[in-house]
Design goal:
Strand order of the largest sheet: 14-15-16-13-9-12-11-10-17
Bound molecules: 3,4-dihydroxybenzoic acid, magnesium ion
CATH superfamily of the largest domain: Divalent-metal-dependent TIM barrel enzymes
Radius of gyration: 28 Å
Helix content: 25-40%
Structural class: alpha/beta
Number of strands: 26
Largest sheet: 9 strands, mixed
Shape: elongated
Length: 629
């Protein structure tokens, strides 16, 4: 499998782009003419610089407004192309992309256009070069790959072939399976991009909103399956015009791009096993079985307050680590690790971020297979020295500052609580009825959201839900949920556009994106609320206005609304189900807990309630006894 990426995808000057592209593991680049022209070096020097990075120039592009012109424009187009042929030979590439004409004088007629390409093929052949024709979705006469293919077919020249681009095909809602009947050796190059489904002008959508395969809503997998089924065995190249990426970190965007290609081609190989492209053999997407633990990094003062909060939520100290200053608190299947050890990752994370959730443990079928797949997708494995009697639990770095550890039942990893922890006699008030972790919510800058969602989607069997906009008094927060099919793993990604939002302040104050809240599930939220009241839990009060509006909006019975009001429970409904939520006050830099009950398959996250929750959190600040550190 040969991977490539267009230089337009990445921020920086050509040198910075090449460094990022090479570091991410690509084999080649599509050199965009603009990136070459604006760079101050000769074509030969640029070619050498690309090859010094271990990259090939798989394509030169774009050449515009070539086909279907009347004279004298036609002759001028051929002259222009001869100049570009010179340049290509200096750069050291043999393939140029001609995109379908938008020239006002361009004439239609398949045979006229095919004739132009046949003549061009002759000129290219003399120099050992090749020309690929791409239908732009907004081309004047050709805007469909089937028409571009008909032009190429009739040109009937070995140096003329077709270039397909997933955006132009899928953006126009053309059935990608129509590609299957094209001979693979006549497809000279394949460009891949995804995009979010937004109704807008095709050209504007293409030039500003494309994103990496898997990051948007187009069925790029189906498109790529169709291409691979033709026998095509050339490079798969990303061509992503995106305003945000152009201003983003070159390394991060290049890594996302490479990850998206590995993920995509792995999916394609599984669906079309007989393809000519050699795709590396990696474990399939990992099915998450649940959240095994959440770990806080804390100092002693913070840990004392956290313990009090956990106790008020019905958690009990369940074990103390055999060698480190680490405790595990438990309720139902939920485990919260409190790490105050003066060494190791948690300590470093605490120095950088203060009290924070530095680690999330997931239960999977095979921890080994999980890190193997993660490594193939470009994730960074994490290791730290293991003490006597301790287990080596496979881990990777997440996209932000935190770690992900993987626990499985296949090995003895699942017994870590027995092996590394001394049990503590459970005592204290009765538990609060919390059973498991319903979801974890990560807060990040809006620009990081696609990186995070690709990270989860490519590694785990998870699907994206539609993005919802949450209005915070300080700005907009976009929220997107990712879920495994049975709900064993639910993560919400909350992207803050400004630091004036509650979520944005959390990022600024804690120096980076991480888990901001954890939601625990209960089977009976009213019983939980009553139990927690007895154990001194300080919940987030909900204003009276909320309940007046709720009863008017949903036509609920007064007695039911009274019960919600008394316990400060927020409520939502969807087609079949109901959702109950209550919140803790915030602590640290704005961390909090949520308690939820899902009834009859409610599928959302209570988005209509988020503005009320945020307003109350902003108004009230941290709980008494839980000062901001
Ligand atoms: O937006 C464009 O003009 C443009 C140029 C070249 C391409 O390959 C493409 O897909 C779009
Ligand atoms: Mg293209």
């Amino acid at each position: 499998m040969r991977t490539s990426i267009a230089t337009v995808c990445i921020a920086g000057d050509l040198r910075e782009k090449l460094a990022a592209i090479a570091a991410a593991g690509f084999d080649g680049i599509e050199i965009f003419e603009q990136d070459f022209i604006t760079f101050d070096a000769s074509p030969r020097e640029v070619g050498a610089m690309v090859r010094d990075h271990g990259l090939e120039i798989s394509l030169f592009q774009p050449f515009r407004d070539f086909e279907g012109l009347p004279e004298p424009e036609r002759a001028r187009a051929f002259d222009r192309m001869e100049r570009k042929f010179d340049l290509m030979q200096e750069l050291g590439t043999d393939l140029v992309l001609v995109c379908s004409s938008v020239h006002p004088k361009a004439l239609g007629g398949v045979d006229r256009m095919a004739g132009d390409f046949r003549d061009l093929g002759e000129r290219a052949a003399r120099r050992g070069l090749r020309v690929g024709y791409e239908a732009l979705a907004w081309g004047k006469n050709v805007w469909d790959h089937r028409d571009a293919w008909e032009v190429v077919r009739r040109a009937d020249h070995p140096n003329i072939g077709l270039i397909v681009d997933s955006f132009h095909t899928l953006g126009r809602k053309i059935d990608p399976d129509t590609i299957r009947s094209i001979p693979g050796d006549k497809i000279f190059f394949v460009q891949l991009a995804d995009a979010p489904m937004i109704e807008m002008d095709l050209l504007y959508w293409s030039r500003h909103f494309r994103n990496m395969p898997g990051e948007g809503d187009l069925d790029v997998t189906r498109f790529t399956r169709a291409v691979a089924a033709t026998g095509y065995d050339g490079p798969f190249s990303l061509e992503v015009f995106n305003d945000q990426f152009r201003g983003g970190s070159p390394r991060a965007i290049a890594l996302d791009g490479h990850r998206s290609l590995v993920y995509l081609l792995d999916q394609v190989k599984r669906a079309e096993p007989d393809i000519a492209v050699e795709v590396p053999d990696i474990p399939p997407r990992i099915r998450p079985e649940g959240v095994a633990f959440i770990e806080f990094a804390a100092n002693e003062d913070e840990a004392a307050l956290l313990r009090a909060l956990l106790a008020s939520l019905g958690f009990r100290l369940a074990g103390k680590h055999i060698a480190k200053q680490v405790e595990v608190w438990q309720q139902g299947e939920i485990r919260i690790v409190v790490n105050t050890d003066p060494e190791g990752f948690a300590h470093t994370a605490h120095i950088a971020h203060g009290l924070n959730i530095c680690d999330v443990g997931l239960t999977v079928e095979s921890a080994q297979a999980t890190v193997e797949r993660a490594a193939a997708l470009g994730a960074t494995p994490f290791r730290q020295p293991v003490g006597p009697g301790e287990l080596e639990i496979p881990a990777i770095r997440g996209v932000g500052s935190g770690l992900l550890h993987f626990i499985d039942r296949q090995s003895n990893l699942n017994d870590v609580w027995k092996i590394e922890f001394t049990p503590v006699e459970r005592e204290g008030a009765p538990e609060g009825g919390l059973t498991r972790i319903d979801h974890i919510a990560q807060t990040m800058n809006y620009e990081e959201m696609l990186t995070w969602s690709l990270f989860y989607i490519s590694l785990f069997e998870t699907e994206k839900l539609a993005t919802v906009d949450v209005v915070d008094p300080g700005g907009l927060v976009r929220s997107q949920a990712l879920e495994s099919p049975d709900g064993a793993l639910r993560v919400t990604l909350n992207g803050a556009e400004t630091h004036r939002t509650f979520a944005g302040r959390f990022i600024a104050d804690s120096f980076g994106s991480s888990v901001q809240h954890v939601a625990f599930a209960t089977d009976d939220i009213f019983a939980t609320a009553a139990a927690l009241k007895d154990s001194g839990f300080a919940g987030l009060p909900v204003p009276e206005n909320y309940y007046d509006d709720l009863s008017a909006r949903l036509g609920l019975e007064a007695a039911f609304v009274d019960r919600l009001r008394e316990a400060n429970i927020l409520y939502d409904q969807d087609a079949g189900g109901a959702f109950y939520q209550m919140y803790s006050r915030t602590f640290g830099d704005g961390i909090f807990f949520e308690i939820v009950q899902r009834e009859n398959g409610y599928g959302g996250y209570g988005a209509p309630n988020a503005p009320f929750r945020i307003a109350a959190q902003r108004r009230l600040g941290p709980a008494p006894g839980m000062p901001k550190f």
